[in-house]
Write a structure and sequence with these properties.
Blueprint: E1 2-5, H1 12-22, E2 26-28, E3 31-33, E4 47-49, H2 52-60, E5 64-70, E6 73-78, H3 79-87, E7 91-95, H4 98-107, E8 112-117, H5 121-131, H6 135-150, E9 157-160, H7 164-179, H8 182-198
Parallel strand pairs: 1-7, 1-8, 2-7, 3-4, 8-9
Antiparallel strand pairs: 3-6, 5-6
Helix pairs in contact: 1-7, 5-6
Length: 207
């Protein structure tokens, strides 16, 4: 699991879309949320938009891998979707807040946690103005951003999104490097080792 966190307005959604397009074998986990769709968002693409009672039922039935309340709304990750992607051999990209990242770290110690840092508070405010976010909501989200930025030290990687293309390249580099970690490559290495032991000079048939 590749977990991406950062304050609202830092560019997580844009970078997630670009990262999924750039790297084969990386699935995006579509979260559930009780908030209303923003202009241009589509149910089942950015989020599964559900009413609060439906979200509560998912939680009670254990269908959420993690969940959190953010700015008054509920967000959660589908356990079934993540587990299916992992079983099929794909890596999974999750866009969650710092509360959710902490839960995922406890549930899966091998998860890779990345914090996306804004260049400055003014950049976040500008992004929310372009979205048409009301002034009161902007103030709440800036206060939340202050708290989230303080959690950045708990993450494995820190990426500064002062330039979108640069941030994307850094994210790609992190995922590719993590795929090459010895512990993740052991199954493939064992197949090659068996080929050497067999004296064939080639992997066993079907490997």
């Amino acid at each position: 699991m590749v977990v991406l966190s950062g304050p609202s307005g830092v560019g997580k959604s844009t970078l997630c879309r670009r990262l999924i397009r750039a790297l084969p074998g990386l699935d995006f986990s579509i979260s559930y949320t009780t908030r209303s769709p923003r202009p241009g968002e589509k149910d089942g693409r950015e989020y599964h938009f559900v009413p609060t009672p439906a979200f509560r039922r998912l939680l009670e039935k254990g269908r959420l891998l993690e969940w959190a309340r953010v700015d008054g709304e509920l967000y959660g990750t589908s356990r079934q979707q993540v587990e299916r992607s992992l079983r099929e051999g794909a890596d999974v990209l999750l866009d969650v807040d710092s509360q959710g990242a902490d839960q995922l770290r406890r549930a899966s110690p091998n998860a890779v946690l990345i914090f996306l840092m804004p260049p400055n508070p003014a950049a976040l405010q500008a992004r929310h103005r372009r979205r048409g976010t009301e002034a009161a909501v902007r103030r709440r989200r800036l206060a939340l951003a202050r708290r989230e930025v303080r959690s950045a030290g708990r993450y494995d990687y820190l990426v500064f999104n002062d330039r979108l293309d640069g941030a994307l390249e850094e994210l790609k580099g992190i995922v590719l490097a993590e795929r090459c970690r010895t512990q993740r490559q052991i199954p493939r290495a064992r197949r090659i080792l068996r080929a050497f032991r067999n004296g064939t000079g080639a992997p066993p048939k079907g490997a």
